[in-house]
């Protein structure tokens, strides 16, 4: 069965962006080793334009073949014309307000997102990447099989939280920790079931 993996960037204090979700400031912490790691280990999570820029667009997907994101996460790239941001993945945008995506390759999920994720998990293929945001992560927390938390060395004080889930203890097991010269730490956890 496929896994749902929440792979997300966050500050030390658990915010994935400012109050509006903007997170461009995280890029200043990317060093050469982190970039090399991303290109080698996480190329599926790079937008298609970045894969082309780095000359890896022809690589087959290694880990993910599907991306799930909230409307606000998807809309970040629209002003730049990125209507099909992850052309190398099957793309789903979860939204109650968006009736149709501007690209035919992007499917809008307006109904029961938990049911949709369970359906996707039963299909053959690589894992499913939950890209963001906080509301969607809150709805899907109990469906997450893995957390890949990229912690950046900054403290924001407030902003968009990692998830908007209610209080409940959910146990995960530490799988790995990798740190980089620029201060980024990638911590991977698997769901304890």
* Elements, N to C (H/E): EEHHEHEEHEHEEEE
Looking at the overall shape, the CATH architecture is 3-Layer(aba) Sandwich
User: How large is the radius of gyration?
Assistant: 16 Å
CATH homologous superfamily grouping: Dihydrofolate Reductase, subunit A
Which regions have little confidence, pLDDT < 50, spanning 5+ residues? Answer: none
Q: Given the structure, what is the number of helices?
A: 5
Shape: globular
Cα-to-Cα separation, first versus last residue? 14 Å
Mean pLDDT: 95
As a percent range, the share of strand residues is 25-35%
Number of extended strands: 10
Query: Major β-sheet, in short?
Result: 8 strands, mixed
The name of the CATH topology is Dihydrofolate Reductase, subunit A
Number of domains: 1
Indicate the percent of residues in helices.
10-25%
Structural class: alpha/beta
CATH hierarchy class name: Alpha Beta
Domain Bacterial bifunctional deaminase-reductase C-terminal: 5-185
Protein name: Dihydrofolate reductase family protein
InterPro entries: DHFR-like_dom_sf, RibDG_C, Riboflavin_Biosynth_HTPR
């Amino acid at each position: 069965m496929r896994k749902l993996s929440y792979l997300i960037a966050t500050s030390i204090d658990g915010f994935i962006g400012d109050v509006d979700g903007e997170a461009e400031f995280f890029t200043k912490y990317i060093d050469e080793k982190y970039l090399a790691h991303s290109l080698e280990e996480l190329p599926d999570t790079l937008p298609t334009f970045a894969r082309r820029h780095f000359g890896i667009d022809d690589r087959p997907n290694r880990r993910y073949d599907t991306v799930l994101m909230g409307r606000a996460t998807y809309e970040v790239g629209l002003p730049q014309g990125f209507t099909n941001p992850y052309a190398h993945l099957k793309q789903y945008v979860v939204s109650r307000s968006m009736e149709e995506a501007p690209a035919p390759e992007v499917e809008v999920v307006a109904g029961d997102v938990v049911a949709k994720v369970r359906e996707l998990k039963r299909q053959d293929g690589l894992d499913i990447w939950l890209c963001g945001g906080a509301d969607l992560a809150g709805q899907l927390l109990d469906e997450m099989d893995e957390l890949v938390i990229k912690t950046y060395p900054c403290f924001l004080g407030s902003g968009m939280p990692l998830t908007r889930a209610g209080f409940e203890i959910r146990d995960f097991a530490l799988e790995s920790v990798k740190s980089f010269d620029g201060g980024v730490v990638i911590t991977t956890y698997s769901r304890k079931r």
